[in-house]
Amino acid sequence: MEDRQIVMLFWARSEEAIAETQKKYGRYCQYIAYRILKNDADAEEVVSDTYLRLWNSIPPHRPDPLKPYVGTVCRRLALNEYERQNAQKRGGELPAVLEELSDCVADGDSASDMGESVALADALNRFLKALPSETRNIFVRRYWYTASVAEISESFHMKESTVAMLLLRTRRKLKKHLEKEGFTL
Amino acid sequence: MTGKDLYIAMQGIDPQFILDAAPDATGARPRASKSIFLRRAVIAVCACLLLGILLILPWRMRGGNVPALPAEDTENTPPSQTFSDETEWTTQQPPSPPLYGADSPEKLTGPSLVFIVGNSASTDMGTSSAPPQFEFNCLCYLVRAKAVEVLPDTYQVLSALRATSDVKPTNYRLVRMKTLESIRAKDMPEEFFYLMRESLVSDLTVYDSLIISMSQIWTENFILRNVDEQVMEALPLTVFGDPEDQPELGNMIAFTEGIFDESLWQNPGWRFGYQFADRYIEEPSKYYVAYRGCTESYTVGRIEEDLQAWRELEESRGETWSSDGPRVRDLDVKTQAAKEVLAYVRPFENGVFAQWMYGSTVYFRRYINGCETEEMITVNLNTEEVTYSEVRYEKEDLKGIGDVAAQIADMAEAYTAETPMPPHTDPEGKDLRCLNLFGWYAKVNGKIYGVIKTTWTYLEEYDRSGYPWYNIHYDDRYLLYDPEENAWSDVSRDDLKALLGLRNVYNGEYGVGEQLPME
Q: Which DSSP string corresponds to B130-178?
């Protein structure tokens, strides 16, 4: 079913919307949640919660395209679940991802307001747009989908060391880009 | 700035980048190779999971242990399970004799019926960063109209003053509209009111025409509270409004001299605001029903395409599709019973009855001096079946009745001088978002009690993986007017429940808080 039709079903408050979303994006959500939680049962729980969150947010939202919206909701829920489970003990892929991204910035205070967060997202978009498409996809797969380097190397038919090096260089470029954009790092 | 900030900021990247980098479906599971048996087992498990979701989710959504689905009545209310309304219903009970003469519209005695401190309206935790969408919700009434007048006064909806409303009553303005064309709406009146939040209203009369997708809010002769004049006011036209009570750009499109006029949208309060629209109205392909400089006829044509898509969808689901669109509801009833009800609730002839609609049923609730009672009457406009609540108010009842509104006014003055402490909540580290006074009447064994509830709503923010998360803490205290004592006194919620039942009484656990979603 087309995304637009699924969204219409949500707006019409038809429970078919859930089933169609599950059919089309269930595995996509499972992928996202699993990469963060590293546990099938927890990931399935998050995916179920994703459908409920979609039901409660469409309407009023009318996402187009639907897929990244679904993915974003799932990612947020998975992060919340991760945080709940790992308040004391860190594990999985996320700590490594956060550590790597810390390379791009100096330790400092957290972004203070929504305006800065929005500006940061805009700067990231400009940076990503300027990257070669393959590099961008690898970067997003690592830092949005929280995929492991090994998995990326398999997907993109590269050696793990190549992926790691590409990510390192991209992070360095990002650091320069953010400095140029005026962010206090 | 931290690495976590960057990671969170990644949430805001262009959705296209997310799509481009998405793993394909075959990469969605762990990569360990599986035997054919295992593959089949996985398929079977997936099928069971799908079946389970299909079977269980609808049940869970209807009342299982999940958040309730949004009700059609979208007033600001906390979770409904924490409050009860014990209204008992009977059918076909004849109306009581009138309480008031026809020439005695109600006045409000207190300087302000509602007292609230704190920026309670901002419990919306932020604006959506989603790009605007401009499809019409075609299940709504779809018309071309001309705004004739924006009424100067501010109004509040009576039922929004209920105890379950822990946020400020929304101030509204009314725009008198003239129907130019029904694109998809049956029996559209020549004139109607469009209800808009005061914070969003602008001078709509400057536009030659507006294309509006809207819902019917009330039938004619509804009553609103006129905030400026401090009186109840009956207004004669049918009222429509935005389906979500917060217009988004696509639900109202303005035209001047037949050309799309984007100035209407340059209001930052509108959902999916102009900061997003500006990026999307440059070219037709990015925009669904209008683009910069397009003609009104182009927009109407795109809407008709949208309607066609809806029609195909509905028919593919075996639903019938009416090209005429939804019928506008009115109070033109045929049966004697329904006529008696409408005569009984006619504005000011027998007191004040607030009106609201839910599906094909119109509900009328009695208000005394701006405070609600449990007396309710309904009329189903399809079947014309009527129902009356068991509790009815008679003229004799009003002798010696406590003045809830005046008491609220006194308490508001005291609260202004000094913020009262909540009885069950430690306010340390919490932000008082709303201190609210609310009063109502209840009739038990022929006696009319008055109740005033003070509610505190605190917001506690904490960091969770860099996301702001919130706990909302609710607390309250009750004051009871006993007609035999002719005095007000504090009452515990348990005693109140024993005396008057559960109506408007909080049933949740104090001091625990309830988690709010992160946005």
A: SPP-----TTSEEEEEEEEEE-SS-EE-GGGGSTT--SPPPPEEEEEEE
Highest mean pLDDT among A66-80, B2-16, B138-152: B138-152
Q: Which of A55, A85, A115 is the last residue of a domain?
A: A85
What one-character-per-residue DSSP string does A99-126 give?
HHHHTTS-S-PPP-SHHHHHHHHHHHHH
Q: Give the residue with greater pLDDT, B42 vs A31.
A: A31
Residues facing residue B378 across a β-bridge = B363, B387
Instruction: Residue B265: name the closest of A61, B275, B257 by CA.
Output: B275
* Nearest CA-CA distance, residue A108 and chain B, Å: 5
Query: Which of B8, B16, B18 to mutate against chain A (most A CBs within 10 Å)?
Result: B18
- In B369-466, which residue ranges form alpha helices assigned H by DSSP? 404-417
DSSP secondary structure letter of residue B263: G
- State the pTM of this model: 0.54
B333-356 pLDDT, tens digit each: 999 999 998 888 887 777 788 887
Q: Judge: A71–B22 Cβ closer than 8 Å, yes or no.
A: yes
A15 is in which domain, residue-wise? 3-85
- Kindly state whether B41 is in contact with chain A, defined as any CB-CB distance less than 8 angstroms: no
Token pair, residue B80, equals 């409904």
User: What separation in angstroms does the CA of B93 have from each of B341, B383, B389, B448, B460?
Assistant: 10, 17, 9, 21, 49
Please check whether residue B212 is in contact with residue B194, taking contact to mean a CB–CB distance below 8 angstroms.
yes
Residue B269, pLDDT score: 65
Partner-chain residue, chosen from A75, A102, A140, that has the shortest CB–CB distance to B17: A140
* A106 assigned to some structural domain: yes
Q: Say whether residue B14 is in contact with chain A using an 8 A CB cutoff.
A: yes
**How many pairs of residues across A and B have Cβ atoms under 8 Å apart?**
206
Sign of CA dihedral B12, B14, B15, B18: negative
Q: Tell me whether residues B2 and A102 touch, CB distance under 8 A.
A: yes
Contact by Cβ (8 Å): B425, B456? yes
Min Cα distance A170 → chain B (Å) is: 14
Q: State whether B70 and A118 contact (CB < 8 Å).
A: no
The tokens for B103 are 């020439």
Same domain as A105, residue A172 = yes
Q: For residue A95, what are the contacts with CB-CB under 8 A and spacing of at least 6? A: none
Nearest by CB to residue A60, choosing from B19, B22, B244, is B244
Cis before B95 (ω within 30): no
Cβ contacts of B59 within 8 Å, gap of 6 or more: none
Residues of A in contact with B10 (CB under 8 A): 121, 124, 140, 143-144
Statement to judge: residues A99 and A170 lie in one domain:
yes
Instruction: Indicate the SS3 state at residue B493.
Output: helix
Q: CB–CB of A110 and B126 under 8 A?
A: no
Residues A65 and A115 in one domain: no
Same domain, A102 and A176: yes
Report residue B150's pLDDT band, with 50, 70 and 90 as the boundaries. very high
Q: Kindly determine whether residue B25 and residue A28, on different chains, have CB atoms separated by under 8 Å.
A: yes
CA-closest candidate to residue A50, choices B482, B96, B309, B517 = B517
Contacts of A11 in chain B (CB under 8 A): 137, 139
